[in-house]
Write a structure and sequence with these properties.
It is a single chain. The protein has 2 helices and 5 strands, in the order E-H-E-H-E-E-E. The protein is globular, with a radius of gyration of 11 Å. The protein has helices at residues 9-15, 27-37, and strands at 2-7, 19-23, 49-52, 55-56, 69-73. It has a single domain (2-73), classed as Beta-grasp domain (Ubiquitin-like (UB roll)), CATH 3.10.20. Strands 2-1-5-3-4 form a 5-stranded mixed β-sheet.
Length: 79
């Protein structure tokens, strides 16, 4: 099952890419695969918020459908 993952800010910097595709079925599986593919993300992902098809999702057991988009949003600073 292919999910498009879009990485922003610090997550993009840690991975070195802004977008990737992951074969997984749950949010937790996707995050594990991202850490395996991009080890530097392991430091960033626990601080991130996640949007699945533009809807907030923090349940790592939540299933993510084939063709979905996952946005990885690190905390943003600024004023």
């Amino acid at each position: 099952m292919a999910v498009t993952v879009r990485l922003f800010a610090a997550a993009r910097s840690a991975a070195g890419v802004s977008e990737t595709n992951v074969e997984a079925s749950s949010l937790g599986d996707i995050l594990q695969q991202l850490e395996a593919d991009f080890p530097k993300l392991a430091e960033v992902l626990p601080k991130c918020s996640y949007l699945v098809n533009e809807t907030a999702c923090n349940d790592k057991a939540a299933l993510v459908s084939d063709g979905s988009t996952l946005d990885v949003l690190p905390p943003f600073a600024g004023g």
